[in-house]
């Protein structure tokens, strides 16, 4: 996952830096007061460490402001002595709360949540038009979208022959007037779908949401899909049970939408795991282990840095900073999807004869690393065999 917004916060800014990660979930008045209490403790720690009062006051004003997101969420703030460099709403609480005043911003808690950073476009369509709901993980409303499609938007095609005739009795026989009227109705539906598709195609091209959900009238869905570009269709998932203007008011639909997002996260995890597994099998395109990853980062070869949350090497902050500053993507891969050697690996932009070898049998002289790369092997590694021999 590419993170240009994080690079701009890390480069060309002088330290020291203030880092704050806080669970800001407010489900009731008690939870709200607990957020304030934890922040007061954090603020006192940072002040003792030397953080300026003016920047602490600015961070406090932002942190204690209620965001539009509901449910469980968190906040991440990076600042230096002059200004706030990064202020993000997190889609879920951070795995650990943290405040730090030091020479380098702490980015691991933020990047541990990359799987949950799913931007999404929900389209509720009927035969007159559609409602568009664009959501991003750091700002669920996207109201600051400069392209004008950030907040919830309604699109009406403007063609109002929407209902076919239902003649009965003596007038029930079909004639040229009925056929002509129904043809105009079909034409209205198609033109309305074209108007919606034009806006959706533009929005996806500009904002590039990870996934597009489509729900509503079945006939209108089919007409719309016929007009959507390939880059939209590649992201498209259809959801049942939605109605334009009403879907998000239904708890059952909201749960179906949440499950669809979870399914997308799981599928993305498997895609990264399979890509790493496939490149390892070809002995090209990836390396694993902290030593080799540090080397290819230094050479600017990394396209995507992968790490297992909870199993990160000691130098993970250094690796993450180097990845961001060299325009590499970063993704937190659950170790149930794939257990990485040393908890870290890299997918490469390019490699050559000097790139560290990354075959399953030659990751290094450490057999434990071989086991980590291919955890399904049945044989016992030489190291384990030697330990068993000593114990027997």
Automatic annotation (TrEMBL):
Basic and acidic residues bias: start-end ranges: 136-164, 367-392
- Would you say which domain of life the source belongs to? Bacteria
- The region called Disordered is annotated at 136-177, 354-392
Regions of biased composition (Polar residues) lie at 355-364
The protein depicted here goes by the name Peptide chain release factor 1
Native source species: Corynebacterium marinum
């Amino acid at each position: 996952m590419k993170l240009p917004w994080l690079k701009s916060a890390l480069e060309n800014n002088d330290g020291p830096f203030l880092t704050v990660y806080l669970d800001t979930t407010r489900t009731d008045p008690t939870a709200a007061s607990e957020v304030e209490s934890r922040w007061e403790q954090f603020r006192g720690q940072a002040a003792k460490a030397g953080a300026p009062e003016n920047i602490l006051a600015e961070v406090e004003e932002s942190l204690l402001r209620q965001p539009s997101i509901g449910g469980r969420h968190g906040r991440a703030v990076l600042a230096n002595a002059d200004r706030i460099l990064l202020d993000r709403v997190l889609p879920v609480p951070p795995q650990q709360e943290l405040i730090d005043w030091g020479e380098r911003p702490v980015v691991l808690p933020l990047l541990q949540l990359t799987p949950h950073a799913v931007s999404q476009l929900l389209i509720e369509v009927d035969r007159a038009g559609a409602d568009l709901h664009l959501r991003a993980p750091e700002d669920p409303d996207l109201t600051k979208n400069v392209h004008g499609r950030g907040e919830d938007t309604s699109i009406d095609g403007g063609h109002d022959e929407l209902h076919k005739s239902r003649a009965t009795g003596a007038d029930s026989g079909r004639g040229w007037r009925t056929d002509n009227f129904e043809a105009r109705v079909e034409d209205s539906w198609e033109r309305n779908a074209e108007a919606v598709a034009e806006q959706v195609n533009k929005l996806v091209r500009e904002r590039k949401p990870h996934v597009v959900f489509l729900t509503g009238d079945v006939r209108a869905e089919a007409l719309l899909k016929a007009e959507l570009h390939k880059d939209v269709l590649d992201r498209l998932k259809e959801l049942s049970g939605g109605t334009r203007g009403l879907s998000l008011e239904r708890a059952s639909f909201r749960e179906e939408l949440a499950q669809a997002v979870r399914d997308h996260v799981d599928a993305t995890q498997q895609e990264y795991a399979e890509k790493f597994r496939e490149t390892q099998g070809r002995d090209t395109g990836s390396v694993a282990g902290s030593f080799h990853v540090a080397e290819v980062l230094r050479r600017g070869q990394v396209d995507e840095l992968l790490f297992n949350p909870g199993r990160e090497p000691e130098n993970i902050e250094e690796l993450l900073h180097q990845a961001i500053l060299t325009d590499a993507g970063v993704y937190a891969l659950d170790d149930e999807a794939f257990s990485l050697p040393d908890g870290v690996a890299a997918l490469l932009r390019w490699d050559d004869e000097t790139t560290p070898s990354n075959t399953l049998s030659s990751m290094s002289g450490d057999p434990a690393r071989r086991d980590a790369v291919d955890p399904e092997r049945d044989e016992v590694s030489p190291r384990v065999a030697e330990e068993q021999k000593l114990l027997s």
